[in-house]
Amino acid sequence: MAQFVCEICGATFEQKSRYDRHMLTSHPKRAVSAADLEKALQGIDFPKRHDELIDAVRGEEREVRDIVERLPERQYRDAAEVARAFGELRTHEKAPANQPSKTGGERSKRQ
């Protein structure tokens, strides 16, 4: 009799190592997307410091909280800046400084 049963597809396994391999290859975890992050930030009032963002997403999935914790320590003016920082984490490249939210925000301060 099988000791390990996949709760997703019902496949059975005698050995835990085969069950673990099945879970990794047949049902891999979905990576956190920008949409997941945007959903977690919905309803949050900006600006927020990094530590305040972490507190704001406490009730979210562990993977989303891990991403927010890995963001650079700085003040975020809006969700677009958080998304830009998330993109930098994923690509390991610095985003250009002339992003629309940044230039638009500076223009609105002058008016």
From TrEMBL:
Tagged with keyword Zinc: yes
InterPro entries named in the record: DUF2795, Znf_C2H2_type
Domain C2H2-type: 4-27
Keywords, alphabetical: Metal-binding, Zinc, Zinc-finger
Gene3D superfamilies, per database record: Classic Zinc Finger (3.30.160.60)
SMART domains in the cross-refs: ZnF_C2H2
Region annotation Disordered: where it falls in the sequence: 87-111
Superkingdom as given in the UniProt entry: Bacteria
Pfam families (UniProt xref): DUF2795 (PF11387)
Protein name: DUF2795 domain-containing protein
Organism encoding this protein: Billgrantia bachuensis
